[in-house]
Amino acid sequence: MSNKNVVEIKNLLKQFPVGGDYFTALSDINVELEKAEFMGLVGPSGSGKTTLLNIIGGLDSPTEGNVNVLGIELGSSSHKERAHLRKTKMGFIFQSYNLLPVYTVFENVELPLLLNKVDKDERISMVEQAVKSVGLTDKMDSRPNMLSGGECQRTAIARAIVHQPALVLADEPTANLDAENSHHIMKILVRLNQELSTSFIFATHDEKIMAYLRRIIHLDDGEITEDENISNPKAGD
């Protein structure tokens, strides 16, 4: 794997058993992702973008082919190795936020650091910085039911980047947000991508997200139909 590549996928095939047959979700996928890219997997529902995102995140396994993420060959790695990779070097943003309702913003964002056994003083500093970066310092002690949808998603972003991962995977992160909040979220993510050199991969069919992407991989029926570099994407704040 090249030193500059965060992700290398070669000849990926993903099939799911359906009855006595197989459904091919992804076929002949070849992708390389360099450090600090801001890229989207774009396509209609059922095109395979979420399946590909899940395979990159080690949440699902390829049927055939090679998937190397941050120097780990996922197909031949153990469940424990993949879990360690996700915990230490990756962040995840979901459309449903996945916040723990009984925890405050601070406690939700702190979770990855507790899992990684970060010392208390450093943990507090890192959480405060992550919460500040998404503009929620005044909501630190609030629970999710006291927050708007946009504030919940900003909390989820802070949780995803608090341990400064090399790669963040985002599955339709603006699906539950209005246009204003969607643009606000995307500007935060662009800024974090630039400041932390974190690589971002989105799975989306939201044109509001696409406007910010610097590279778009188009998927249709499980195959890549176009790999497009965008010359003038929208910028962050």
Outline the structure in words.
This protein is α/β, with parallel strands linked by helices. It has helices at residues 49-56, 79-89, 105-115, 120-133, 149-161, 179-196, 207-210, and strands spanning 5-18, 21-34, 38-42, 64-69, 72-73, 90-94, 167-171, 199-204, 215-220, 223-229. It has a single domain (5-229), classed as 3-Layer(aba) Sandwich (Rossmann fold), CATH 3.40.50. A 6-stranded mixed β-sheet has the order 6-7-8-3-9-10. A hairpin with a 2-residue loop joins strand 1 (5-18) and strand 2. The model has no long low-confidence stretch (mean pLDDT 93).
Strand content: 25-35%
Q: Can you say what the CATH homologous superfamily is?
A: P-loop containing nucleotide triphosphate hydrolases
Write down the overall mean pLDDT: 93
CATH class: Alpha Beta
Euclidean distance between termini CA atoms: 34 Å
Main beta-sheet strand count, sense and barrel state? 6 strands, mixed
What Rg is obtained from the alpha carbons, in whole angstroms?
18 Å
**In the CATH scheme, what's the topology name?**
Rossmann fold
- Number of helix segments? 7
Number of strands: 10
Question: What percent of residues adopt helix (DSSP H or I)?
Answer: 25-40%
Low-confidence stretches: none
What is the name of the CATH architecture? Answer: 3-Layer(aba) Sandwich
Helix-strand makeup class? alpha/beta
Strands ordered across the widest β-sheet = 6-7-8-3-9-10
